[in-house]
Specification:
Length: about 260
């Protein structure tokens, strides 16, 4: 792929900007399918590595969004920042203002079950949470934050056809990266492990709740970057390699 084009650099894109509070892009700037890594520089890496004709479409607060094509099909990628509040802002604006219909988080997670290894891929069928956001959306009841079935099925089928193993199950979306100081990690994680939750991360339950509320389809696919039972963690190179494998599966599956 050549250099990424910047809006306004040729005078063409600058005149149809429809800014939201956090995205400044033309109203047709995003494809119907958008990948959502947490790190904006990962969004740039995905666009440069996988997309043809990638253009930078927004960079408010250095949260980068790109649109291009993959095997001739339009696709976008945008960073979300970390945690439910941040992903909720970007995902809501992408759906409500930019017409994004399929949102696929491509992130990392910490594994909680002994059968998961570093670099394994976890597909979030559902997401538990200690956050109150879905209760706020659901009149105080407990909403089952679940993935879009078609996206989930396509991703699992594609992984299988590529000979890649994925684990499908529950994620734990936590508001706390550093747990309460009065509890050990084992104590914090005990109920999550006991209920068979595969891995912990910080965005999916919020993404699933808001996507369902807005009529969009969402899925989270996360590679295991750290093992919370052994303390093992991926090197930066392995992080990039596992992201690459995961993005290849997702792009083949969801476009
Ligand atoms: N906690 C929360 N989110 C994460 C972790 C973790 O240990 N690892 C990768 N994302």
């Amino acid at each position: 792929m050549g250099p990424v084009r910047v809006p306004g650099s040729n005078g063409e894109l600058a005149c149809r900007i429809v800014p939201t509070p956090h995205i400044s892009a033309p109203d047709d700037a995003f494809a119907e399918t958008c990948l959502l890594p947490g790190d904006p520089l990962r969004a740039e890496w995905i666009a440069r590595t996988f997309f043809d004709d990638a253009e930078l479409v927004t960079s408010v607060r250095n949260v980068l969004g790109f649109t291009g094509t993959y095997e001739g099909k339009p696709v976008s990628v945008m960073g979300t920042g970390m945690g439910i509040p941040s992903v909720s802002i970007y995902a809501s604006e992408l759906i409500d203002t930019y017409g994004v219909k399929q949102l696929v988080r491509v992130g990392s997670c910490g594994s909680l079950q002994p059968h998961l290894g570093l670099m394994d891929v976890v597909v979030g069928m559902g997401a538990c949470t200690d956050s109150g956001v879905n209760r706020a959306r659901f009149e105080g009841w407990d909403f089952a934050a679940i993935a879009d079935y078609a996206l989930l099925r396509a991703t699992v089928d594609t992984a299988q056809s590529l000979g890649k193993t994925v684990h499908v199950g529950n994620l734990m979306t936590s508001d706390l990266f550093y747990g309460p100081t009065n509890l050990s990690l084992d104590e914090t994680m005990a109920p999550i492990k006991r209920m068979g939750v595969l891995a912990v991360e910080m965005e999916t339950a919020g993404l699933y709740g808001l996507a369902i509320e807005r009529g969009a389809a969402a899925l989270a696919v996360c590679s295991v970057s750290d093992d919370l039972t052994t303390g093992g963690a991926l090197s930066p190179d392995d992080r990039e390699r596992s992201l690459s494998d995961m993005v290849a599966i997702v792009l083949d599956a969801v476009l």
